[in-house]
Each structure stands twice: as structure tokens, then as C-alpha cells.
Amino acid sequence: PEPMAEIHSDTAIKYGVADGDTIAVETKRGQIKIKVRTTEDLAPGVIGIPHGWAQANANVLTELEPRDPVTGYTEFKALLCRVRKLE
After folding, report:
1. What's the mean pLDDT in 26-33?
2. DSSP 3-state assignment of 34?
3. Residue 30: strand, helix, or coil
4. Distance of alpha carbon 13 from alpha carbon 53, whole angstroms
5. Structural domain harbouring 68
6. What is the spatial distance between Cα 87 and Cα 28, in angstroms, rounded to a whole number?
7. Among 42, 44, 26, 43, which Cα is nearest to 34's?
8. Which residue ranges run through the membrane (predicted)?
9. How far apart are CA 48 and CA 36, in angstroms?
10. Cα–Cα distance between 36 and 17 in angstroms, integer?
């Protein structure tokens, strides 16, 4: 088994990727490489990254600061990212 990023099929078309393609997911903190699995279970424009994989460590994308002003929680569940297809 290997980690797979889930994205809506419309989002996959937008970025020119298909099932099994490798993408880079980038935030202001870091980048991971991960393969794609398309799905209709997520909203368009959303990417689901699993946690717990050493070779595609989702924690690389998150930050401890800034914290949400209301809850004080860090950005562990939702954050902006850039997606690009890798060759």
C-alpha cells in the first residue's frame, strides 16, 4: 500500500492529473509528493491527504502558528495549498 491524495474528478481535470499520477502538494511551510486517486466523495477544489505515512508526511504541510483566534487550534485539518503534476 501507499498513500493516495483524494481529489474530485473535476479538480483532477483542472490540474491535468489522473488516477495514479504523482503530484506535489505545496503550502507555505513545505511540500510532499503523493499519488492521486479521484473521487466524487469530496467537494471540487478540496484535496484529502491521509496522515501516518512517512513517504508523504502531511505534517510537513502544517504549521504550529498561527492559531485560530477563536479556538486556539492550529492548522491541522484545513489549509490552503498548491497542486501541480509531477512527471
Report:
1. 94
2. strand
3. coil
4. 26
5. 4-85
6. 22
7. 26
8. none
9. 10
10. 8
Handedness of CA 54, 59, 48, 82 (dihedral sign): negative
Q: Report H helices in 1-87.
A: 9-15
Q: What is the pTM of this model?
A: 0.85
Q: 489549509: which residue's cell?
A: 79
Q: How many helices (H) and strands (E) does the chain have?
A: 1, 5
- Residues 6+ positions from 51 with CB-CB distance below 8 Å: 58, 59
Tens digit of pLDDT for each residue in 58-70? 888 988 777 778 8
Q: How far is Cα 48 from Cα 58, in angstroms, rounded to an integer?
A: 10
Total number of domains constituting the chain: 1
- Domain holding 41: CATH number? 2.40.40.20
Give the cell for residue 7.
481529489
pLDDT digits (tens, 9 = 90+) for 34-56: 999 999 999 999 999 998 899 89
